[in-house]
Write a structure and sequence with these properties.
CATH class of the largest domain: Alpha Beta
Number of helices: 11
Structural class: alpha/beta
Strand order of the largest sheet: 3-4-2-5-1-6-7-8
Distance between the termini: 43 Å
CATH architecture of the largest domain: 3-Layer(aba) Sandwich
Largest sheet: 8 strands, mixed
Bound molecules: adenosine-5'-triphosphate, magnesium ion
């Protein structure tokens, strides 16, 4: 079983590459499901098919597509919690629709897409699931959420759970003396599912997060933050796709500077994401869509590889906290104590390494915990740079 998640900045090509990956997986006889929660129904646009809805529909032999409708999902499975909270509001004279709107916790929608995945994995219905995540800096938090809520929930379960805890805040407004038992039961089930989901997400043999960037500063910086968060959350990132690269022989001088600029950005991305598996994808002469074109793209980017392979499975960098000390460990092969330099700029750490072709700089976003800490010392051994922060 494999779960492959694509993320990246808006418009970088998450949907089309999710679709290309899914087609190639199906062509290699892996029974595959592609899931999107984009309300714009982009799977239909990419595959040029209609009727992708809340149940898997067949797109090709071995390939199914599903569009999660989070509101429907919530109403069907967690209606008990929702109606309980909504009923408290509406009893206070609030319009019913509005009550439901308020009862939805922020971030719920993404969480329910993930719970849908848990269900398919539990029932072992597919060999591979490809998830086209929405563009959002927050997207990774949703992947972390199951672990967080699962952990807290477990601790609280004996007393009160997360959602009934939320409901409890409104208890003074309610005419119920107690939280109804069905609300608590739904919540216990939910916590169990979140626990399983978090185990799936941090298992590098099951889950791979793949980053899509374009050769530009904005999307590369966005992906670097995603990589840092993924490392912190313990989610394995194995592939970076650099998409929308202009071929160097474009017969139009208008693009000359773009081509030069892109080639610098491609180098930068390769340095930043070393040693992940890097795929370069060209900017096609027309919009990338439709099954045949997506399949050709999959052949071009994966070549003879099976996209379900785990292309890389080790942390690029990690933060280890012990008491008031936080240590950043970064893999930096070919580096020795004389050819690198480290500087801190606010919440970023700039690491400058002298390589064969000049200096390469990697800027690593620091976790919030370092704000009150000082950079204490920097050591290097066996190709690993160790930076210690202290309170
Ligand atoms: N390599 C490419 N060559 C040509 N067109 C491309 C390429 N990659 C993506 N596109 C086109 O760019 C547009 C955006 O792609 P896509 O919808 O996959 O991005 P996305 O990251 O999913 O966007 P969103 O953040 O809105 O979900 C689409 O029209 C797609 O066909
Ligand atoms: Mg998309």
């Amino acid at each position: 079983m494999r779960l492959i998640i694509y993320t990246g900045k808006g418009g970088t090509g998450k949907t089309v590459n999710s679709c290309s990956t899914a087609i190639k997986l199906a062509d290699l006889n892996h029974k595959t499901l592609i899931i999107s929660s984009d309300p714009a129904h982009t799977l239909e646009d990419a595959f040029v098919v209609s009727a992708v809805g809340n149940k898997p529909i067949k797109v090709l032999d071995g390939l199914y597509a599903l569009q999660v409708d989070p509101v429907l999902e919530l109403a069907e499975n967690y209606g008990a919690i929702l109606s309980y909270v909504a009923s408290i509001f509406s009893r206070r004279g609030l319009d019913e629709t509005l009550s439901y709107e308020i009862a939805m916790l922020p971030g719920m929608t993404q969480l329910f897409s993930l719970l849908r995945i848990e269900e398919f994995i539990r029932h072992d219905k597919f060999d591979c699931i490809v998830l086209d995540m929405p563009a959002s800096g927050e997207a990774l938090r949703y992947l972390y959420f199951p672990k967080l809520v699962g952990n807290i929930g477990e601790k609280l379960l004996g007393f009160t759970g997360v959602f009934s805890g939320f409901a409890k805040m409104f208890q003074p407004f309610s005419s119920f003396a107690q939280i109804p038992p069905d609300v608590i039961q739904v919540e216990i089930n939910l916590l169990k599912r979140l626990e399983l989901l978090s185990k799936i997400i941090i298992d590098p043999k099951i889950t791979s997060l793949r980053l899509i960037v374009n050769p530009d500063t904005f999307s590369i910086e966005n992906a670097k933050r995603a990589l840092m968060s993924a490392n912190l959350y313990g989610i394995n990132v194995d592939v970076v796709i650099i998409n929308k690269i202009f071929p160097s022989d474009v017969p139009n001088s208008y693009f000359t500077r773009w081509i030069e600029y892109q080639s610098r950005k491609i180098q930068e991305a390769k340095t930043s994401f070393y040693p992940l598996h890097i795929i370069e994808e060209r900017f096609y002469e027309k919009e990338l869509k439709g099954i045949e074109m997506l399949r050709e793209n999959a052949e071009a980017i994966f070549d003879n590889e099976d996209p379900s392979r785990v292309f890389y499975s080790d942390k690029v960098f990690e933060f280890v906290k012990s008491g008031s000390t936080l240590i950043l460990r970064l893999k930096a092969p070919f580096t020795n104590k004389d050819n690198f330099e480290i500087n801190r700029y606010g919440d970023n750490l700039a690491i400058k390494v002298l390589g064969a072709t000049g200096y390469i700089v990697n800027v690593i976003p620091l976790p919030v915990a370092t704000i009150t800490m000082k950079l204490f010392e920097v050591k290097i051994h066996d190709g690993i740079i160790e930076v210690t922060f202290k309170e």
